[in-house]
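Appendix B, example 12.
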Amino acid sequence: MSELKKFRLINKIEGISFIILLFVAMPLKYSFGYPMATKIVGMLHGLLVFAFLYQIFEAKKEAGFTWKETGLYTLLSLVPFGSFYTDRELAKKTAEESKAV
C-alpha cells in the first residue's frame, strides 16, 4: 500500500474520530454528565492525530506534497469535516496523475 493511500485512510479515520468526539462524546459529557465518553474517545482521537502527523510526512516524501499543501491538509484536520475535503482533493489529484500516466 502506498504512503498516499495510507495517508488517505488515516485522514478519514482521524476525521471520523474528530466528528465522534465533537458531536457524540462532548454532548454525552456536558449534557448527560458522562465524562468517560470524552476520556475514551479523546484518547483514541489523540493517538490518531499522532498517526495522522506521522503519515502526512511520509506521504509528503512519497507524493511530493509542497509545504503549503502539507500545512493546508494539517490545518483542515483541525476543522470539523475538513479531512473529508482533503480526501476529495487527494482523490482528484490521484485521478489526474493516473490519467497522465
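The helical segments are 3-32, 36-63, 67-76, 82-100. Residues 3-100 form one domain.
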